[in-house]
Specification:
This protein is 33% helix and 16% strand. By secondary structure, the protein is of the alpha/beta class. It folds into two domains: 3-271, TIM Barrel (Alpha-Beta Barrel); 283-359, Antifreeze-like/N-acetylneuraminic acid synthase C-terminal domain (Type Iii Antifreeze Protein Isoform Hplc 12), CATH 3.90.1210.10. The strands form three sheets. An eight-stranded parallel beta sheet has the order 5-4-3-10-9-8-7-6. A two-stranded antiparallel sheet has the order 1-2. Strands 11-12 form a two-stranded antiparallel ribbon. Helix 1 (30-43) runs parallel beside helix 4 (93-103). The longest helix is centred in the C-terminal third of the chain and has 18 residues, at 254-271.
Amino acid sequence: MQVAFGDKVVVENGSVFIIAEISANHGQCLEKAIALIKAAKECGADAVKFQAYTPDIMTIDCNRKYFQVEHPQWGGQRLYELYKKAYTPWEWFGELKRIADDLGIIFLCTAFDKTAVDMLEGLDICAHKISSFELVDLPLIAYAAKTGKGLIISTGMGDISEIQDAVDTAHRSGAEDIILLKCVSSYPAKTEEMNLRTIQDMKEQFNCPVGLSDHSLGIGASVCAVALGADVIEKHFTLSRQDNTPDSFFSIEPAELKSLVENIRVAEKAIGSVHYGITAEEERNMVFRRSLFVVEDIKAGQKFSEDNVRSIRPGYGLAPKFIDEVIGKTASCDIDKGTPFSWELVWHCYERNSQFLTENV
C-alpha cells in the first residue's frame, strides 16, 4: 500500500515514515524552532510537525473549576494559561515551512480549527494532521478533507465506532489518502497501555496505513510498533529534556531520535518477507550442517554400527535422517576413517547400482 501527499511518497511497502513532533518544544523561541527542524533533519527524520492553534481556539479564558489543569507536569494552572505558553506564533509558520522545504524535510502541522486549516492551506501544506482529542470533531475533519489533501488522524481514546465515523467523514468529504495513528493520549503514556497489536487490527478494520503516535518514554515502543506493522512513527522531539517547555518531559533528544531512526531502518530490513529455506548468505554455510561420516576404518563386509558411522559436521555425507537405514548394513569396500557416507558404500546398494548400470549399457 502506497500513500503520497502531493509529490511526496510518505508510505510504501517496507518503508516507515518518521515524524519528529516539535509541538511546544520551541519554548516560543523562533531560533529554537529552527534549530529543532535542522536537528530533526540531521537525525534522519522524514518530517517535522508543529501545531496550529491559539489559546482562544482551544478554550476560553475562564477561572471556573472546569478549566483548571490537573496533571503532574501541567497542573496548577488554567487551560488557557497552558496553551498560551505552548502555542506556536502563527507569523512563524511561513518561515518554518520555507526552512523545512529548503532542508528537504516534510513540514506537517496539526490544525485545531477551520482558521488553522485555512492558514495552512495558504502555505500549500501537503497534508493535514488531526489530533486524538479532535477525533470526534467531525466538522473539522470534514473541513480539512475538503481541501483534497491527505489526512493523518490520531486515534487516542477512540473506540472503533468513533474511528469509523472519522474515516467515513474524511472519505465522504474528499480525502482519498488517510493514515491512522494508534495513540495513547496520556503524557507520558504507560508502556503497558500501548497495546501495539491493535495496529495490525486497525489496518484490517479500516483498510488504510496505520502508524503510532508514541507518547511513551524512550524509543522501545516505536521500534516494536514497526515490527508489528506500523507504517508511520510520530515521536515528540526536543533539543533537551532540561528545557522548561510544556512537552519536553516526555520528548526524546537528538541522540535518541538518531537512534530511533537507525533502529527503525534496521527493523525494516530485518522484517523482510515470508521466506523458508536457504538464503544467499546461508548457502556458503550449508557445508557446516551435520551429515553421516565414517568415523573408524572399516573393512569390506564389516557391519555399519553407531560406533563407526556418526552424524557430525561438516555436511558432505548423507543426511542424518538415513542413519537407521545405514546401521546394520554391510560395507561394500574398505573405507577410511573420515569418509563422507554415501549409498555406494553399502553392499546391497552397490549391487543394485551395478545391476542398473549393466542393464542399461
